[in-house]
Amino acid sequence: MCSPSPGKRRIDTDVIKLLESNHQVTIMSGLNEFMVKFAGPRDTEYEGGIWNIRVDLSDRYPFKSPSIGM
Q1: What b-and-e string marks burial along 58-68, b requiring 16 or more CB atoms within 10 Å of the CB?
Q2: Which residues of 3-25 are buried (b: 16+ CB within 10 A; e: fewer)?
Q3: For the chain, what is the largest distance between any 2 Cα atoms, rounded to a whole number of angstroms?
């Protein structure tokens, strides 16, 4: 049995950290496609705002940046 690639291990680590954060995370299709809901930071013009973003991590992550959309 082969071990996971460094990119796969990095995705696993980063997504687990995100799941343990205060953000609401919904896994869509495996750990490389998910939705994140987060609130604007306090004491900024974004306070009170809520954002929903979709994140797609390629097989080349972290060497290729994530695709971010709404």
Answers
A1: eeebeeeebee
A2: eeeebeeebeeebeeeeeeeeee
A3: 51
Q: Which helix (H) or strand (E) holds 37?
A: strand 33-39
- For residue 66, the SS3 value is coil
**Upstream peptide bond of 41 is cis (omega within 30 degrees of 0):** no
Mean pLDDT of 23-51: 94
pTM, 2 dp = 0.80
Evaluate whether 56 touches 67 at the Cβ level (below 8 Å).
Answer: yes
Dig out the tokens for 21 from the structure: 């954060």
pLDDT at 4 over 70: no
Residue 66, pLDDT above cutoff 80: yes
